[in-house]
Fold this sequence. Notes:
Largest sheet: 7 strands, mixed
Number of strands: 11
Helix content: under 10%
Oligomer: single chain
Amino acid sequence: QVQLVESGGGLVQAGGSLRLSCAASGITFRLNTMTWYRQAPGKQRELVATFTWAGSTNYADSVKGRFTISRDNAKNTVYLQMNSLRPEDTAVYYCNARRSTLDYWGQGTQVTVSS
Length: 115
């Protein structure tokens, strides 16, 4: 019954912006820590940004100052605003919901940044 659906990916030029969305259902959204991960071909999955259930945020050093994570508990949605995009940001971006020991993942959305 749990479903996380990412949207908003696409192809942009370096320096451009995208806003990703992740709509959640089947969970008590406000009690879940929400995290964006990304994975590029041949590379390990890496954490991009986290918004905890208690209201704290954390970012990978590589995106700090460029990306902003936000959440709207009334809409059961978490967002990732990505500005000043670089080719090295190219990856599949995944939404993750976590509460206690349970993890749920979305299907991913492709972000491609051209030089």
